[in-house]
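User: My collaborator sent over this chain with a note saying "see what the structure looks like." That's all I know about it. Can you take a look?
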Amino acid sequence: MVKMSLDPMQVMSGQVKELKRSPSSNGDTRGSWEEKEEFDPNQLDLTVKPKTPKPENAVTVAVSSRVLFRTEREQKVFEQKGVEEYLRYQIEHENEPFAPGPAFAFVKALETVNSRLRELYPQSEELFDIVLVTYNHAHVGIRLINTINHHNLFIERFCMTGGSSPIGYLKAWHTNLYLSADAEKVREALGEGIAAATMFMLEKMTEVSESQLRVAFDGDAVLFSDESERIFKTHGLDKFFEHEKENEDRLLDHGPLKGFLEALGKLQKKFYAKGQRLDCPIRTYLVTARSAASSGIRALKTLRAWGLEIDEALFLAGAPKGPMLEKIRPHIYFDDQMFHVEGAAEMGTIAAHVPYGIAQKYNSQHKMSTGK
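Assistant: Without extra context I'll predict from the sequence alone. Here is the result:
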């Protein structure tokens, strides 16, 4: 079984870069302002950064520092020596950047999509907005900002809660997705109606596309409710097939990540409107254990009724998901069952666990290395 680690400390963080300023007049006459407007920013060596969208206009993705970066060494210091030694260690090493963690490639892909969107819609604020979330003390912020700058990430918003829950802040930011190493905080976010998933540190990670964001979803208890999965868990496969056949024209209720798929679809349509359907930098996948003939039609009818498009749908009829995900190479795959998350991880796929629905009763039987 693949070794994965859960980390209890998370982060919300952002970056501030200095602008190089040139001497200018302090006069307040109209002439002095007109003179400034003629300056060429490139000649002045100004660092021009993209515009940060308002939270209500953006697709906000909040990520824990423990999943964006690798901080296992620091976590051991915290666990073995306590918070004071932990803070001292962070300050002593604040000029040493953290290495990329499991959410790093996903965040970089979001930035790639933003670059394409800004080319097509220079004034639009319908962009991904990344928020770095942490329980850490503010003293750790310098190292986080140094790391963000080192990896050339565009993260402007962050919140260091000093041990308090970040859920209230997530709601204030209209968060569309929260990724954390803390399963309890993920459950808390889901309980507040925020799409959320737990990520894990892997021994190996498959290379992913640098030009196209690829997001894969399980169906039941992820995009859809766990209604059908409850039938399967409690009454078996035959009853499940019977139930789906009888209800194929009745839509499935929504699951916890439906809203995030809607947000992705909204951004996809902006590319379609510019004739870039075939060159869209966002691609979505449905990867489900359902079989196409006996239970797939209800899932597809539900997505169509919601007005959502999935670029590719894989109905595996119970076959392992890992090999398919290895071919897709998604930046992230969401599933409610640890069995599938672990299977994907063994193939090097970044898989995030959505602790929602009846499967959690069975997930508790799985044992993982947590690094705690």
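A starting point for your reply to your collaborator: Residues 5-46, 366-372 have pLDDT under 50 and may be disordered.
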